[in-house]
Amino acid sequence: MSADCHRDVAALWPTSHVKYATALEEAQKAIQQLFGKIKDIKDKAEKSEQMVKEITRDIKQLDHAKRHLTTSITTLNHLHMLVGGVDSLEAMTRRRQYGEVANLLQGVVNVLEHFNKYMGIPQIRQLSERVKAAQNELGQQILADFEEAFPSQGTKRPGGPSNVLRDACLVANVLDPRIKQEIIKKFIKQHLSEYLVLFQENQDVAWLDKIDRRYAWIKRQLVDYEEKYGRMFPQEWYMTERIAVEFCHVTRTELAKIMRTRAKEIEVKLLLFAIQRTTNFEGLLAKRFSGCTLADGTVQKKPELPPPSTNPFLDDEPGTETDETMMEKSDIDRPKKPKVPDNPFHGIISKCFEPHLYVYIESQDKNLSELIDRFVADFKAQGPPKPNLDEGGAVLPSCADLFVYYKKCMVQCSQLSTGEPMIALTTIFQKYLREYAWKILSGNLPKTTSSSGGLTITSLLKEKEGSEVAKFTLEELCLICSILSTAEYCLATTQQLEEKLKEKVDASLMERINLTGEMDTFSIVISNSIQLLVQDLDAACDPALTAMSKMQWQNVEHVGDQSPYVTSVILHIKQNVPIIRDNLASTRKYFTQFCIKFANSFIPKFINHLFKCKPISMVGAEQLLLDTHSLKMVLLDLPSIGSQVVRKAPASYTKIVVKGMTRAEMILKVVMAPHEPPVVFVDNYIKLLADCSTDTFQKILDMKGLKRSEQSSMLELFRQRLPAPPSGMENPGSISLTAPTPEQESSRIRKLEKLIKKRL
């Protein structure tokens, strides 16, 4: 079977080979034919290209010839126009036909520009020189005509302007710009010559009290100009505005000169009067003119309005008005933001008053000094504010008066200047903010007296309402709260005042405005007020704590209700805290600070007096434990004590009370524990108090009434049982263990409550 297959394959192989060879040969022939056709196409394309070049060669030559011919004809026409124009220009110049010259001269200049590349040709150069000579002659001739019509010395030519001068101005537009500037300069100088004579420095009308006459004079002159010369000058020359601007420059120079000479005669009212009238006039100019001549003739863009402000102190300012209203009103009493001026003429005259604004600053210094003195006198005459527990602590009305006056001064000064005078005014503000803080606020805080002697248990039992223990009266407590509220108001308003001053002053001077020191001063007043309230309540509780430490706790035979000293402490808390809370209703955060500071002061003092209770019997320790728990509950409820609205105490305050009073409870629990066996007692102490201080352990032993010999062995055992100190610590006596977790504290509190109930 295999042999037959091999024979069949061998028989088929020659036939397949011949078939593939024939196909390959045919493909090669087809490729050769294709290459031949491509070559033929390429040859035909080259012949076609050559033929096109031969056809277009003649067309290009004709195009070049046509272009040259057109250029030549155009140049000859321009030359003809130039020659005729130059001749006509010279003739019209001699006859002063300025109306025709204005149109012709521009055309001649335009035609001459076509011959700039032909200036090497003598005839063309000669024509160019003739044009320049005609321009120079026109310029000199026009200047002479204006000099004749408006001589520098003497009055204007009778009869008013002529058509010749009006056409001459049109020609000046085409001539060198210096000719136009010379015409404008001479005309304005001649127009204001009378002003310089009338308001010379030695004239009575030149002084500030008659500054209105200056502005009345220029108003009449502008009206006179419009009537007589309004049509003589082209509208794009803005001659009316130029006269007004030059008047402003001259007036500023003259006013600066006369104020330097008579500086001692400048008073505040006179200076403000002059500035008021001047800024009014500048506002009038802004309404009448665009200010396009203020920047060398370039038209200024209309200033964009500032974005709406989010400052609440701008509510009564024009930021709440519509754009149209803001642009229409020009009352100078309205504060304006110097960052985006809407008056291009602002300061064009009034800038001269800046060197003399020290008079205004000194006046404000004097006024503020008198204002502070009046506040002091009023406080002494009227006395402290009356208690008003329904509305909370009242802010002293004098602080509102002070900041209203500050705002008035700031707005007024920002209208006068946004430069150095604003910095000087800020310095004055700082000075009297500090004086207000010390003279009105700190100076009127009640003074603390020396602490009285301790009370006995008998005196505590006889004490009625605790009135003889309280340091401050109701009026004094209300006064302290009122001063605290006032200081907070001043602190917040001073920060806003700083922001407003930075808005009003130049951007380059913003960094020099800093009222941080004054804000710190009011913060100190707030802190001192809180400290006074804490000291008062703390001092009221001192006799009770002293009585606690003097009780014979080893003689207590049974556990009863809370001790008299606890009742006394609670009484003082209930007397003072509601008054303070109601008077600080508007400043809740500072009432919270008062509570925290009182807890931080009272609890350590209570623990110190607890250590003084020695020796203590088991029953005495249980009574103290009951008292401590009662005080703890009262302290936890202290922020809302005596209030109809129960509000949860702040977490920060609760944490302090729980931590401090739990420590006091653990101290008593250790005291209640038996000291035998000693090892168990020491381990129990370390576990409950988490305090490895030998001093604290010594105090615990004293409270238990152990003898010195027993204490020595206990202390030695305590040192041995102390855990190993962390690396790097040398004094193991100062080591404190990790504080118990809130869950552990809660569990201990529950055990303590069960113990107290069981004993009761």
From TrEMBL:
Question: Cellular component per GO?
Answer: cytosol; endosome membrane; GARP complex; recycling endosome
Q: Where is this region: Disordered?
A: 299-338, 722-748
Could you say which residues form the signal peptide?
Answer: none
Q: Which InterPro entries match?
A: Vps53 (IPR039766), Vps53_C (IPR031745), Vps53_C_sf (IPR038260), Vps53_N (IPR007234)
The Vps53 C-terminal domain is annotated at: 622-706
Its membrane topology:
Peripheral membrane protein
The annotated regions of Polar residues compositional bias extend over: 733-744
Biological process (GO) annotations held by this record are: lysosomal transport; protein transport; retrograde transport, endosome to Golgi
Q: Which Gene3D superfamilies does this one have? A: Vacuolar protein sorting-associated protein 53, C-terminus
One of the Pfam families matching this protein, by short name: Vps53_N
Which compartment or compartments is the protein found in?
Endosome membrane; Golgi apparatus, trans-Golgi network membrane; Recycling endosome
Biased composition regions of type Acidic residues, renumbered to the chain = 314-325
Every Vps53 N-terminal domain range:
21-379
Query: Which family is it part of?
Result: Belongs to the VPS53 family.
Indicate what this protein is called per its UniProt record.
Vacuolar protein sorting-associated protein 53 homolog
What organism is listed for this UniProt entry?
A: Alligator sinensis
Q: What is the lineage of its organism?
A: Eukaryota, Metazoa, Chordata, Craniata, Vertebrata
